[in-house]
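This part of the workshop introduces the protein records we will be handling. An example says more than a description, so a record of this kind follows:
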Amino acid sequence: MTFGSPAQTPATDRASGTGPFDTLILRDVMIVDGTGAAPYGPADIVVNGDRITGIWEPNGASGLTERPSIDGAEVMNLDCAYVMPGFIDSHAHIGKPEQAPSADYVYKLWLGHGVTSIRELGAFNGLDWTLNEARRAEANEIAAPRLHVYPALRAGTLTGPTPVTADAATAWVGEVADRGAKGVKFFGTSPHRVRSRRRSGTGTWSANRLPPRPTSGRAGQRADLC
């Protein structure tokens, strides 16, 4: 499943940092909410487990009418630091050993740039390997973004023969979904096949090549179709 190369070294168990906490309060922050609106604050953000459950502002505009109690909570006094939603990278690859021998390096790059969720398109380190990394990330066993795994339906990436019939392809999609894949990556597939996978409830992503476009001069440009 890795085009003849060994898989990367999996991420090491998390040995630094703290959390998640039953209750975490980020105090006196400026919030960039991702809607395009201006930042607002200072405000307090309440996080229970891994979910934002409340925001308090002195003027009461954000839902909570009383400032959250710090009793039993982990509190970070951030003094007008800016807080914003994590970025989602919708087309990402953990990579290959010759690019980064250990997945730790890749995860740290993503996290360091604010990427907290990725769609791993291909699972070229192997589906079991990639799904295990996704499981470990979700359990906070490793420092990594959330991984949404989309294995590729392509020769060289499958443990068995490449499906050549609609029934075989449908069976394969069902199998990888049962194993935990969130979707499937196609290469050059026809739109009706993508629609059939969507009807099955499995996400899809397709890498196609555009036909020549004389007016643009960019024949064969790659297109990401979601």
Q: What stands out?
A: Residues 69 and 141 are 29 Å apart (CA to CA). The longest helix spans residues 166-179. Helices lie at 103-112, 127-138, 166-179, 191-199. The chain is about 20% helix and 30% strand.
